[in-house]
Amino acid sequence: MNPITSSPKSATNELYASLAPEIRQELESHERHVVMARGQRLLECGVLPHQIMILNSGIVEISVPTPEEEVSLGTAGPGRVFGMRAVISGETPEIDVTPLENCDVTVIPGPDFLEVLRNNPQIYFAVAKVLSADLKIADQLIRNCARRNPIRKV
Fold first, then answer.
1. At what angle do helices 110-119 and 123-148 cross, to 10 degrees?
2. Nearest of 37, 24, 14 to residue 105 by alpha carbon
3. Which residues contact 149 (CB under 8 A, 6 or more apart)?
4. Which of 120, 65, 110 is nearest to 88 (CA)?
5. What confidence tens digit (pLDDT) does each residue in 65-119 have?
6. 11: pLDDT confidence band, cut at 50, 70 and 90?
7. No. of H helices and E strands in the chain?
8. How far from chain centre, in Å, is Cα 39?
9. Contact 123, 34 (CB under 8 A)
10. How large a percentage of the chain has pLDDT more than 70?
11. Most buried among 33, 70, 74, 145, by the most CB within 10 A?
12. Structural element, H or E, at residue 84
């Protein structure tokens, strides 16, 4: 990832929305703001990210690579957080996240994020909220897919 450095933009995001101001300020002290070019992967399936990424502006496509093709799960806009589960768990992501246009992104290095997390246990509620929202989206996608391709009983 070779992003272009940009000026900071304040944006409401799904993580910061649930945090106390002092914790937001602590995370903000570790932020770096970058512009990700259209087509440049923000998150790549099977590649462990070393930071969490917060989309400030632009639209990204979320997809899952399969042996036959890349399957689009939809798009996401400003406020979404990517890479958090992978940074916390140490497991590689199962999705690709690709900007459909130049996107302003806030990057927080994984070790810094984990240190803030360890020092501020109350942040776990905000993390759980973000991860729960991701699970809800995955559940909706599975249900929509099942409606379109029902399993036929023999």
1. 120
2. 37
3. none
4. 110
5. 888 888 888 899 999 999 999 999 999 998 899 999 999 999 999 999 999 999 9
6. very low
7. 4, 8
8. 16
9. no
10. 82
11. 33
12. helix 84-89
